[in-house]
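TASK: fixed-backbone design
INPUT:
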């Protein structure tokens, strides 16, 4: 009983800080630019940690350890490696370019950037990209709500749906109040909290498992568990080869970074593009260390189950591994219970840091891109911010409905949404920034092809099995890029004004 009280105290304290930040920044939202991009005043540290905290989500503390716990090193490690490489390259080649370009054309959102980059006066690109963002962000946000609900349900036995409503309410509250600055500042706090949680979990887990040597010995007893070219199959207790094609497919997670709206927005919002170098270093180091620890936690978890420190986890329940470890830690004493509370607050942080960014990006698509840019509605600043806040609430309600199934897998939902953004927006972002000949028709066709191919491949072609049973992001990204290039080449070249702007941006 005392342990649960201490955990509740730690979590309530954390949530109170989040709400306080939202209230504090609510007074700064005097313009649309402030609400969506924080007036482009983010510092390098906030930019780095906000981008990565909003990127990693509950996937880092639930999905990734859960995959490693069930099947061993291969899938989790290749996925993490692909993401680490993608993170670094995205910061290296995209961040400065998109900050410079969006500032030059005065674009506040990713859909807005697409239309202004290609001189799309009818804002067709804005409309289509906004719809794609809404389609994929709603299930993405749902995965975050589901992760929070699983936490409260597993820890306190609280009804899943009640937990779902409480989690969503907190996120919506500080997101609608504070806008982009609140979201980015809380992301910094959440990134720090996630880091502390990972350190506590790994230290306690290794000690309870009997040390690193015992962890390795237990893992080696399972065929293929520690291999990078074989994967352990928990249902049969056997091993299956992890082929070169499968490795390439898994590492394709890294391609998703080029099309993630909530990450690209952080690049756009930094106060000085020259400070992105420092941001890149901070972000890259944090991502590599945090993912390595998360994978190892999954491996340690198996030894903890063998030692009966935590129960044996199956299926999607493997994603509660850190919750189970925190619950075990909380039973020792008051200090341990408070530390467990910090761990669980870290899971909330991982979830909220992504959900709030997604809700804000989706809201901007409706109030700014669909109503004002595409619909040509004249709306004053106060009304626009109000519409954005209402949109956050409406999208959250839909996400709650989608997350109502307690057996849903956080990893699988995130995987699908990540692929959608990567394939629909990744190729167009790269072409927009690095290829002068790219035009609006190529961008439009590539975008639609990438988004549609995610559904076609996952629910159709992949069912054929064999070489087709790969992560849908890889084939969809490649096809979208090819379509973008071909259509751009067979249609009219961009106007002189668009080319002049491109040259001006790239001359700096």
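OUTPUT:
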């Amino acid at each position: 009983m005392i342990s649960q009280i201490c955990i509740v105290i730690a979590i309530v304290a954390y949530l109170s800080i989040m709400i306080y930040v939202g209230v504090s920044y609510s007074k700064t939202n005097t313009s649309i630019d402030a609400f969506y991009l924080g007036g482009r005043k983010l510092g390098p540290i906030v930019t780095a940690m906000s981008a990565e905290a909003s990127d990693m989500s509950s996937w880092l503390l639930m999905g990734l350890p859960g995959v490693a716990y069930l099947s061993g090193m291969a899938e989790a490690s290749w996925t993490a490696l692909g993401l680490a490489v993608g993170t670094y390259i995205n910061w290296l080649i995209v961040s400065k370019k998109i900050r410079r370009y969006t500032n030059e054309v005065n674009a506040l959102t990713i859909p807005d950037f697409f239309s202004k980059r290609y001189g799309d006066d009818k804002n067709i690109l804005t409309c289509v990209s906004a719809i794609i963002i809404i389609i994929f962000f709603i299930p993405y946000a749902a995965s975050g709500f589901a992760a929070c609900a699983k936490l409260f349900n597993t820890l306190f036995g609280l009804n899943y749906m009640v937990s779902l409503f409480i989690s969503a309410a907190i996120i919506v509250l500080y997101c609608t109040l504070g806008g982009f600055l609140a979201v980015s500042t809380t992301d910094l706090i959440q990134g720090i909290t996630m880091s502390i949680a990972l350190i506590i979990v790994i230290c306690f887990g290794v000690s309870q498992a009997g040390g690193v040597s015992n962890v390795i010995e237990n893992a080696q007893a399972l065929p293929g568990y520690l291999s990078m070219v074989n994967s352990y199959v928990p249902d049969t207790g056997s091993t299956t080869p992890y082929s070169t094609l499968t490795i390439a497919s898994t590492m394709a997670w890294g391609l998703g970074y080029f099309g993630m709206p909530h990450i690209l927005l952080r690049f756009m919002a930094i106060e000085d593009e020259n400070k992105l170098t420092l941001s890149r270093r901070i972000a890259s180091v944090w991502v590599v260390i945090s993912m390595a620890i998360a994978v190892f936690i999954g491996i340690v978890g198996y030894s903890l189950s063998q030692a009966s420190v935590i129960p044996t986890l199956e299926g999607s329940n493997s994603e509660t591994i850190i919750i189970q470890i925190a619950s075990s830690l909380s039973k020792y004493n008051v200090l341990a219970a408070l530390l467990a509370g910090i761990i669980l607050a870290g899971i909330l942080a991982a979830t909220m840091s992504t959900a709030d960014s997604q809700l804000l990006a989706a809201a901007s698509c409706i109030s700014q891109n669909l109503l004002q840019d595409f619909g040509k509605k004249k709306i004053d600043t106060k009304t626009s911010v109000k519409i954005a806040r209402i949109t956050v609430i409406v999208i959250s309600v839909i996400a709650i409905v989608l997350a109502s199934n307690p057996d849903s897998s956080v990893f699988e939902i995130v995987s699908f949404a990540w692929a959608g953004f990567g394939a629909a927006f990744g190729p167009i972002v790269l072409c927009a920034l690095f290829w002068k000949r790219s035009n609006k028709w190529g961008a439009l066709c590539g975008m639609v092809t990438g988004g549609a191919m995610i559904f076609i491949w996952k629910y159709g072609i992949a069912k054929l099995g064999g070489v087709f049973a790969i992560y849908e992001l890889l084939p969809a990204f490649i096809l979208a890029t090819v379509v973008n290039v071909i259509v751009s080449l067979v249609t009219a070249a961009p106007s002189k004004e668009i080319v002049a702007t491109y040259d001006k941006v790239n001359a700096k």
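COMMENT: Residues 442 and 485 are 6 Å apart (CA to CA).
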